[in-house]
UniProtKB/TrEMBL annotation:
Pfam families linked: PDH_C, PDH_N
Protein name according to UniProt: Prephenate dehydrogenase
Top-level EC class as recorded in UniProt: oxidoreductase
Superkingdom of the source species: Bacteria
Taxonomic lineage from the root: Bacteria, Bacillati, Actinomycetota, Actinomycetes, Kitasatosporales
Keywords associated with the record: Amino-acid biosynthesis, Aromatic amino acid biosynthesis, NAD, Oxidoreductase, Signal, Tyrosine biosynthesis
PANTHER family: PREPHENATE DEHYDROGENASE, PREPHENATE DEHYDROGENASE [NADP(+)]
Length: 361
């Protein structure tokens, strides 16, 4: 791949362009808002000047509702040897292209499983896709050269290719991406009119659950409008669990011992099923999640403190597998939770104490 055209310079399009440009590909940028394409070009993602002839690959990075029309226009003008889109739904756009009579041999639907709560070119980074799954949905009609160019794009972005059927992909993202967005937003919506005293009690749990609720509503309306059926199917199951959980909680208020026991059993069932589901979420390096020991350290909110604790852990010869920071409300301090192998935890705690750190259990 020597040349590429990125159509749509939001977060995903600009991030892909930055990755390609950084690896020697000549990237042309276009957007319905020329100022946005100019911004992406200024960031080093390529040039907003039109290519002189057909490019090797056209990357369509527009909202799902506009994918088919944008692809059909690009194909009609013959601007590339191969065409891909990076929308978060795959079945609908492909069927729209078929209905428009487009030649699908030169097209493959793709979806990089990466993103941020922020959108637009200023949020883009060249390493956005590194180590992340990038779904490819070829059909029997897909030309081998087109598939190879798509795989080259994935490799240049340092992502991990995953081949799936388009409709299977849409059902999968309904479960692991689209429904979590809605559920996160529903929980966060409870905070909008909550008493200020209650909001001040927010801890790490509510921050974890509502993190993605900060996403752009307009963008998510477009995504969900393109995949409503599979998302509704998943939410139907969630709604059934919610109803059963509500009934179990009501039973815990009963004066009848049997009803209370039944309520407790119902709550325990949903929590245990949650444990089982959580255990299936891939952990570090895509493997099954490991059982790490948490070493919690009190840390002040001062420049250099994080670097110092990581350096001290390194001096102790301990690899930090993961890290979380729990901020203390109203204080210039917080807890750094260092996740380490269980066998390494005692030595790390001793070493950090010797260096003056305050360990919390």
């Amino acid at each position: 791949m020597r040349t590429a055209l990125v159509i749509g310079t939001g977060l995903i399009g600009t991030s892909a362009a930055l990755a390609l440009a950084g690896r020697g590909v000549t990237v042309h940028l276009t957007d319905h808002d020329p100022a946005q394409a100019h911004t992406a070009a200024a960031l080093g993602a390529g040039t907003d000047e039109a290519p002189e002839g057909p490019v090797d690959l056209a990357v369509v990075a527009v909202p799902p509702a506009h994918v088919a029309a944008t692809l059909a226009d690009a194909m009609g003008r013959g601007i590339a040897r191969a065409y891909i889109d990076v929308a978060s739904v795959k079945g609908g756009p492909r069927r729209e292209l078929e209905a428009l009579g487009c030649d699908l041999t030169a097209y493959i639907g793709t979806h990089p499983m990466s993103g941020k709560e922020r959108s637009g070119p200023l949020a883009a980074t060249a390493d956005l896709f590194e180590g992340r799954p990038w779904v490819l949905t070829p059909t029997r009609d897909t030309d081998t050269e087109v598939l190879n160019l798509a795989l080259e794009l994935v490799a240049l972005c340092r992502a991990v290719p995953v081949v799936m059927d388009a409709d299977a992909h849409d059902r999968a993202v309904a479960l692991v991406s689209h429904t979590p967005q809605l559920v996160s937003s529903m929980v966060a919506a409870r905070l909008a009119d909550a008493d200020e005293t209650a909001v001040r009690l927010c801890g790490q749990g509510i921050r974890d659950v509502t993190r993605i609720a900060a996403s752009d509503p307009r963008m998510w309306v477009e995504i969900l409008s393109a995949n409503p059926g599979p998302v509704a199917d998943v939410l139907t199951g969630v709604a059934a669990d919610l109803e059963e959980t509500v009934q179990a909680l009501r039973a815990l208020q009963s004066a009848d011992d049997d009803k209370r026991r039944g309520g407790a059993d119902g709550i325990e069932d949903v929590l245990r099923r949650g444990n089982a589901g959580r255990e299936r979420v891939p952990g570090k390096h895509g493997t099954a999640p490991a059982a790490y020991e948490v070493v919690a350290v009190l840390i002040s909110d001062s420049p250099g403190e994080l670097a110092r604790i990581f350096a001290d852990a390194g001096r102790a010869g301990v690899n930090i597998e993961d890290v979380r920071i729990e901020h203390a409300t109203g204080q210039q301090a917080g807890l750094v939770q260092l996740m380490v192998e269980p066998s390494a935890a005692p030595g790390l705690m001793d070493s950090l104490r010797e260096r003056g750190w305050s360990i919390r259990r």
